[in-house]
Amino acid sequence: MNVRDIMRPARWTIRPDDSLGRAERIMAHRRLHQLLVVDAGAIAGVLSERDVLDYRARTQHDGDWWRQSVRSAMRKVPPTANPDESVTAAIDRLTHSAVDVLPIVEHGFLVGEITATDLFEAERIPIEVSPLPITAADAMTEPAVTVGPTDSLLDAAKLMVDHQVRHLPVVEDGQVVGMLSDRDIRTIAGDPVRYVEAGEGEGGPMLNVRDAMAPMVLTIRANRPLRDVANELADERVGALPIVDADGKLLGILSYVDALRALAA
């Protein structure tokens, strides 16, 4: 199976000379973590929410940062794939990329993209049968950064920004009671970075994690085969799942990127 069989059009892109304000509005409105930067049909780089935040932190343009060009904050061209390459090769390239999107380039022009989520949803990840299958514990990130349901949503947003994570397990009395994602924060309070900035001033909305989290979250045992976990990620359409022991105690967290990297290793 080739990349052409599963790739999709790159619907939302930005130009190098567009403003950072325009790029951030597109990402916020479309709930995207990054945008491919395209110049005259060719891939020129990639711009993520984190890139915008880092640019604002290291420059003196804080008051008018949104007027600056995408070119000033974007990353160099990420790894790319050709439509006729194998899906296996694309998976390997994506797992070694700093961003979770793989631009598809043909004859020098951007013709599509693939994300890790696309691969899981398509259920086309090649997994070798082994007498010792990879488990969730082999691929999870530990320890997981966590919050409690009564913690302030502002503090949770700060944790996401500081630790550069998108999902926080919500733990109460030693048990996982929910999951908080950056999208949950967007739904109730807007962009996490802007929410942090607003909260540090006056008038920031006083919300708790419980107000935004997804309750009754699915948990995965540490000894569960990774093949099954990959299917759960695809079926539940979630970006990460908490990994627990036999007593329900949180051990770590497994994202679709973690799973993809382990399967491609």
Structure described in brief:
With 265 residues, the protein is an alpha+beta fold. The chain is built from ten helices and eleven strands. The protein has two domains: 3-122, CBS-domain, CATH 3.10.580.10; 136-264, Roll (CBS-domain).
pLDDT averaged over residues: 84
Determine the CATH topology of the largest domain. CBS-domain
Count of DSSP-assigned helices? 10
- How much strand? 15-25%
Reading off the top of the CATH hierarchy, the class of the largest domain is best stated as Alpha Beta
Radius of gyration: 19 Å
Which structural class best describes the helix and strand composition? alpha+beta
| Level-2 CATH architecture of the largest domain | Roll
Backbone shape: flat
Helix content: 25-40%
Q: H/E order of the elements?
A: EHEEHHEEHHHEEHHEEHEEH
Taking pLDDT < 50 over at least 5 consecutive residues as the criterion, the unreliable ranges are none
Tally the beta strands.
11
Largest sheet: number of strands, sense, barrel closure: 3 strands, mixed
Number of domains in the coordinates?
Answer: 2
By CATH, the superfamily of the largest domain comes out as CBS-domain
Strand order of the largest sheet: 1-2-3
